[in-house]
Amino acid sequence: MNKNSTDEANQPDRGRREFLMKIALGVAGVSAIAASVPVLASFFAPLLERPPGLWRPVAGLEGFEVGATRLVSFENAEPEAWAGTTARTAAWLRRDAAESFTAFSANCTHLGCPVRWESEAHLFMCPCHGGAYYPDGSVAAGPPPKPLVRYSVRVNNGNIEIRTSPLPITTIGE
User: From CA 154, how far away is CA 68, in angstroms rounded?
Assistant: First the structure.
């Protein structure tokens, strides 16, 4: 028996083997794709969902002078039960007029260091890297890449409220 006759005898087995291999690879590929959908969805869903905003009372109208800028403290939008004092955060609140307020995040947009209001210089200053912001929150000097994050502010039943979210948002809503 020569070599060609042996190859011809194995052709049906080889074709069947290749066919079954393709089916097995196809089923494995479909299974891998089906298993990866929930995993990928869990990674990308937080990026696609906008965090819910919550209105937090931060101060009362009485005793807050027009033109004054004050540091106010409030609870994070999504505090964890174990967070303790880190469940609280702060913002700089300025009374612009009788019913008009502006609120900025108390953290520098460079590395998140706390900023302070220097009333004599009329600047928000970051002590860590020399960042400075004008009273409107825009960058005055230093390494900050963008203005201070602004919060929406409203007056509700004599209380000043700031709309917060789990992560600072850069647009002013509602």
Answer: 17
Average pLDDT of the residues in 148-165: 85
List the one residue out of 160, 173, 151 whose CA is nearest residue 95.
Answer: 160
Where do we find the tokens 């260091």?
Answer: 113
Contact residues for 52 (Cβ-Cβ < 8 A; gap 6+): 77, 165
- How far is the CA of 1 from the CAs of 4, 7, 10, 70, in angstroms? 8, 11, 14, 99
Only one residue has tokens 């794709």, namely 33
Given a contact cutoff of 8 angstroms between Cβ atoms, the answer to whether 75 and 56 are in contact is: yes
Question: CA 74, CA 105: separation in Å to the nearest integer?
Answer: 12
Q: Please, is 84 exposed, middle or buried when counting C-beta atoms within 10 Å of its C-beta (0-12, 13-18, 19+)?
A: exposed
**Whether 162 contacts 56, CB under 8 Å:** yes
How many residues are recorded in the chain?
174
Alpha carbon 20 to its chain centroid, in Å, reads 49
The pLDDT assigned to 169 comes to 42
Q: H/E element holding 152?
A: strand 150-156
pTM of the model: 0.62
- The pLDDT tens digits for 37-93 are 888 888 777 777 666 677 888 888 787 788 888 888 877 766 566 655 566 788 888
